[in-house]
């Protein structure tokens, strides 16, 4: 598939090969450059619904960029990303693919939640207000329903008694759990995590990972960039090791983490464990 100058796509392969078995996320040959520097050099990855993929790799290998491409925060320069049967950034109209309009982008993004290293909560809002803002403002959910759902989510992340506190009154780990609840409030089909525990004091990491493990057990589809090898071993269905903008190796945790084939993977794991 090629992008033409006017932003339409020339389809050279069928878009819907087998709907039933189609992964929820499928990246094929994804390329991304910043100026002359190519940071993603043809990434092929796919995640089935209900599965957890952990993305590991040294700093600068392109992990965040890849997540940002899925979530419309960056535009890819080549390849394609299919999400839930639709190409990221492209809509089908009159039998042709066109670049999505902002309103279509917003709709697609609603199906994808993202949790960042820095929790990015609104500082002037309580935990509860942070969680209900998007459901009310964007999804137009009635306030009473949004509040009831937010209270359930706060319970789920172990913060049922913290609804009326502001971010500054919460620990980093608690703030991150509010951020997870906030992402869940939009009922996403996919959750992206970009080093969700890297900014936390070590004693606060476990509570956040426990919440994430619970989500995984409940069937949430997740792509998690993390250096927490223990989490990847316990929770991931697939572990991917990236370096220098390419996937070096991928497979079940027992293969990639315990019997890595590539020297680069081995060297990385020796440093993080
Ligand atoms: P990782 O998350 O694996 O640490 P990133 O995806 O953040 O890697 O970065 C990959 C490479 O792209 C790095 O060399 C980084 O400096 C570069 N990069 C990331 N974002 C930008 C940007 N907005 N402009 C220019 N270069 C960038
Ligand atoms: Mg990063």
Q: Which helices and strands, and how do they pair?
A:
Layout: E1 2-3, E2 9-10, E3 25-34, E4 37-47, E5 52-56, H1 63-70, E6 78-83, E7 86-87, E8 90-93, E9 96-99, H2 102-110, E10 112-115, H3 127-137, H4 143-156, H5 172-184, E11 190-194, H6 202-217, E12 221-225, H7 229-235, E13 238-243, E14 246-251, H8 253-256, H9 263-272
Parallel strand pairs: 5-12, 5-13, 10-11, 11-12
Antiparallel strand pairs: 1-2, 3-4, 3-6, 6-7, 8-9, 13-14
Helix pairs in contact: 3-4, 3-5, 4-5, 5-6
The chain binds adenosine-5'-diphosphate and magnesium ion (MG).
Family: Belongs to the ABC transporter superfamily.
Main location: membrane
Membrane topology: Peripheral membrane protein
């Amino acid at each position: 598939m090629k992008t033409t100058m006017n932003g339409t796509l020339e389809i050279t392969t069928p878009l819907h090969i087998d709907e039933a078995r189609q992964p929820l996320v499928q990246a094929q040959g994804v390329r991304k450059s910043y100026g002359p520097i190519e940071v993603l050099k043809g990434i092929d990855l796919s995640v089935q619904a209900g599965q957890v993929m952990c993305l590991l790799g040294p700093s600068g290998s392109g992990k965040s960029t890849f997540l940002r491409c899925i979530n419309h925060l960056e535009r890819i320069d080549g390849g394609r990303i299919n999400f839930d049967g639709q190409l990221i950034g492209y809509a089908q109209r009159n039998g042709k693919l066109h670049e999505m309009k902002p309103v279509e982008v917003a709709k697609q993004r609603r199906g994808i939640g993202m949790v960042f290293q820095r929790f990015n909560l609104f500082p002037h809002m309580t935990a509860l207000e942070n969680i209900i803002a998007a459901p009310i403002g964007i999804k137009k959910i009635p306030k009473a329903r949004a509040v009831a759902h937010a209270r359930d989510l706060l319970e789920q992340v172990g913060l049922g008694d913290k609804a009326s506190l502001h971010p500054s009154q919460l620990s980093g780990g608690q703030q991150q759990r509010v951020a997870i609840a906030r992402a869940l409030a939009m009922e996403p089909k996919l959750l992206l995590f970009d080093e969700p525990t890297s900014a936390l004091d070590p004693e606060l990491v476990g509570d956040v990972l426990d919440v994430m493990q619970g989500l995984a057990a409940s069937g949430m589809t997740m792509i998690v960039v993390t250096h927490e090898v223990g989490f990847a071993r316990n929770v991931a269905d697939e572990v991917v090791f990236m370096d220098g903008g390419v996937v070096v190796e991928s497979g079940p945790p027992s293969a990639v983490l315990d019997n890595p084939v590539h020297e680069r993977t081995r060297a990385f794991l020796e440093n993080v464990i």
